[in-house]
Amino acid sequence: MALGLLGATASFTLTSCDLFESDGFSERNIGNLDNSRNISDLPSGYRVKTVGDEYRYIYKTNGKLDEIRISGKSYDMDSKSVKIEGDDFTEKYDFTFNTDDLLTKIKLTHREDNSDEKSDGTAKFTYNSDKQLTKITVDVTEYYVEDGKDCKYTAESTFEYTYNGRRIRRIKQNVKETETIDGVKETAKFSKTIGFDYDDDEDYINVYYQWTPNYTAAVLGDTDDLVSAMAYIGLLGRASSELPYAITADYSGSSLDDEDMDESTTTRCRYSKNSYDAIRTADGKTYTYTEKDDDYEVKAAGVDFEEGLTTASRATDARELAASLRPAFFRLRSGK
Asked: For 172-197, how does the pLDDT look when each residue is reduced to its tens digit (9 = 90+)?
């Protein structure tokens, strides 16, 4: 399912609150939301500015979060939704946050114009008292046409996170897919278990509970999307209290495409820190920070979308944008 975006505007907002109050951890004054805090545990006055070339965070002159940019496209913080409109489709995300400004629900709605093809998805996020993810449940239903046949696809996924103290130990993902084509139903199940290897070296202590690229890919799926962008500034809570030096994923089962999922992969993680122990580089991406007294970058209104495109190229680019924005757990069977 693809998003149409030409000339579209995309926006979402975050409600204000005093997230991550003082609780024995470092104060998290990064300048986010209406109380000028970011949701990560960085020291007072510091804000995440960029993560790699993909993510850029723009703040108002008072230090409050104003905009997230992903690969050059900008999303304003003035509503709790992102909507992408193309020449022949509309895709929308509605976000729900709790009183701690942690993301608790995403609702996906995708509609094709002049067609019965549509998709709906819901993802729910649960946290523990330490504001760390403990579970994500995802349901997706898609209706589409393939080779002239009516198709229905559903996917039910659960991600469960286990910790030793505040250090993540394991992620267990279970997925059930069902596809019905002209009344013929086929079901597939597969699972993934992710383990984390740690070093007792103090250099691996995650002082400010920051999210890193390989960690984010393990927790949310291997994509650079809007939900991942939120994670880097703490909208999905705290990451592990220690940085893993390796992450191993073990797969079992098979997909609807009869793809054998029995395999194991290990990813090595690498980090460096700056003078105040915030992450400077992680897994090939460089982090930069802005201080409270900096002159904040003036944001551009709306979506940074090239003007003068033809209708066809605009529709194509809109779908590409929609696909890139969509979280991994909302991937659609039809590929739209």
From this structure: 999 999 999 988 999 999 899 999 99
Are the C-beta atoms of residues 88 and 100 closer than 8 Å to each other?
A: no
pLDDT band at residue 271 under the 50/70/90 scheme = very high
Are the beta carbons of 142 and 109 closer than 8 angstroms? no
Per-state percent for the chain, helix, strand, coil, to nearest 5: 10, 45, 45
Residue type, 150: D
Number of H helices, E strands in the chain: 3, 17
Side chain identity at 81, as an amino acid letter?
S
pTM of the model: 0.80
Contacts 24+ apart (CB under 8 A), 53-59: 53/285, 54/224, 54/229, 54/285, 55/224, 55/228, 55/229, 55/232, 57/233, 58/296, 58/297, 58/299, 59/31, 59/290, 59/296, 59/297
Instruction: Give the pLDDT confidence score for residue 336 in this predicted structure.
Output: 61
Q: Which residues 6+ apart lie within 8 Å of 275 measured at CB?
A: none
The two structure tokens encoding residue 9: 């505007």
Q: Which domains does the chain have, with CATH numbers?
A: 46-330 (2.40.160)
Share of the chain above pLDDT 90, in %: 41
Residues 6+ apart with CB under 8 A from 46: 29, 30, 276, 278, 289, 290, 291, 292
Edge-to-edge strand list for the sheet holding 55-59: 73-76, 65-70, 55-59, 46-51, 285-291, 279-282, 271-273
Q: Which two tokens stand for residue 62?
A: 């008072």
Asked if 67 contacts 50 with a C-beta cutoff of 8 angstroms, the reply is no
Tokens 């949701």 found at: 39
**DSSP, residue by residue, 249-260:** EEEEEB-TT--B
